[in-house]
Structures are given as C-alpha cells and as structure tokens.
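Lecture 7 notes: from sequence to structure.

We start with a single chain of 337 residues. Read the sequence below before looking at the structure.
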Amino acid sequence: MSAFPRPHRVAVVAAPPVTTFDLSIPGLVFGAALVGERPAYEVTICTADPGVVATSGGMDLLLAHGLEATGAADTVMVTGTGDRVSTDPRVLDALRAAAARGARVASICTGAFVLAQAGLLDGRRATTFWYMSEEFRRRFPGIALVPDVLFVEDRGVLTSAGLSAGIDLCLHMVGRDHGAAVANATARLVVAAPVRPGGQAQFIETPLPPERGARLSATRAWALARLDEPTTLADLARHAGTSVRTLTRRFRSETGLSPLQWLLHRRLDRAREILETTTLPMEQVAARSGLGTADSLRTHFRRSTSLTPTAYRAVHRAGRGGGLLPSGSKGVVGGGG
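Now the structure, written as tokens:
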C-alpha cells in the first residue's frame, strides 16, 4: 500500500455537443495542482457512449471512458454543452447517483442546464453563462439564479459562469481541498489570475469579476509585490503615470473594483495563505498581509469569510493534520499569487 493518500478523483462528463474549451479546463487546472511533488488530482473525461463525441465547434473528439468513471469519482463535473434541453437520461442518472452518494458535483458554463435537468439545483443558488441567464431563469424558476458572479457554491453543488470562469471555479475547489498556497501555485502554473477570494461562507456570491484589460497590469504586479507596505491611491497613480481619477476609472474598467477594494481582496488572499502555512501570531499575519493590526485583520477577515482568523487557521490545520510551518519559517509564498 502507498504511504501517500491517493489523488482526488475527478470525473468530467461530456454531454454532447460539448464546448471544447470548457471540457479542457478541469484537466488543465487540476492537472497542474501538486501537493509537494505529487499530483493532487486524477482527471478522467467520460461520456455516455465512448467513442467520437460531437462538439459545438464543429470538430469531433475521441473519448475512451464511459459513465462508470463517475462511480469512483470524488468530484463529478459537467461542462458546457450545446444541447441545453434534452440531455441523455444516462448522464442525468449518473449525476444523480454521484450526488446521492456524497460526491461533490459541479458544472462549468451551460453545464448548469444539465445539473438543473437532473434536479440537483432545485432550491439552490446557481449561476451560468450570462448570455443564457434569461433562458435558464424561464426554464428553471425553482432555482435561485445569481447571474452576476463567477461561481456559486451551495451545499456541495457548484456552478460557474461561462468560459474562463470555469478556471476560477476549479482553482476555488483546489483551494477548498488543499489550501490557498496550493491554489495560488496552481494559478501561477496555468498563468491564470490570482485565486479569487472565496471564504468559508456557504455561498460564494461575490467573487472578483474577471479582469478585462492589461493597461494597469504592471501597476497591479507592483502593488502585489509590496502588499505589506502602505499603498495610497497617489502611489498607484504615480506608478501608472496617470492621475488618481484616471487610475480609478481604468482600474474599475479592468478589474471591476476600485483600486483600494482590489488591494483589500489581495491582502486577504495573502492573509489566508499565511494563516494556512505558518503559526505566526495574528499581529505578524496582519503586518505581512498589509492589513495593519490584528483587530483590522479580524474585522476584514470575518466580513470576507464568516470566520475569525483563528477559527480559519484551526479548520485548515485540522484538515492537514497540523502540518503548518513554525513561526520563524521563511516558507511563506509571497505576492499573493
């Protein structure tokens, strides 16, 4: 028997015609996640009828695995599909069976329509590709659609918005399973934006919107490299070579947030990572994350995650058998992703 725990098994269900981009996301993100030097996940793509599977982009895919792969999976995901009305009953049965035995169930993009057909979103909150939101709301009035977020989690069922929001969802699940340090390292490996703040609340209702521009990317990188230092709007504007007013307008256009809101989210990312990977006292966690004092850390952390920093650390320490770095360790990953 191996001395190490087996990888978390993820079954990705292709319900044709599939969207190839969405279908590739779980393998890319989960495949890049490492715990130490070991793969954290094992990903299998499956479908009701193994063989050639049609895509919404006009090409064909060859998939070797059938739906039996869902029976041994810890997480079962269904990705975007061009058929939002009449999903194969065998796919719906496999999803219901996975949920019934306690597997985590998730969808990317219009895969939410498949989960809805299976009845797995009834009475829950969910999201989907914004372009299909009105159709989803008309067809499934019993589901509380949250149209303006990247992803939603409700009692073990997760749904994401369209396209690249699936990357955010997968990174969120990596963070849930293995902590902020592993999730941020995975984000860097797949050259994605830093992991969006998720917190410990039951629903993930207000993750960061996707970045929509790169004019201020150098300024954001500069700010990330010195999160532990006081940074004002004037400092950011000076680095960007623009006025505070122009900086604020461009920042909101590119990130969906004001500069100071964005800084706060990034500092909370850093605080979570330090809490998960060290035993540093709260004053030092606050100082290293740029949140000032332990009281300030506690206030912002509770507002973001519904937990105190101490409780958050205890949860993650219990989940890892107490494997934190000692207080004097230099092993904290800097930059917040």
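The chain is about 40% helix and 15% strand. Keep this in mind for problem set 3.
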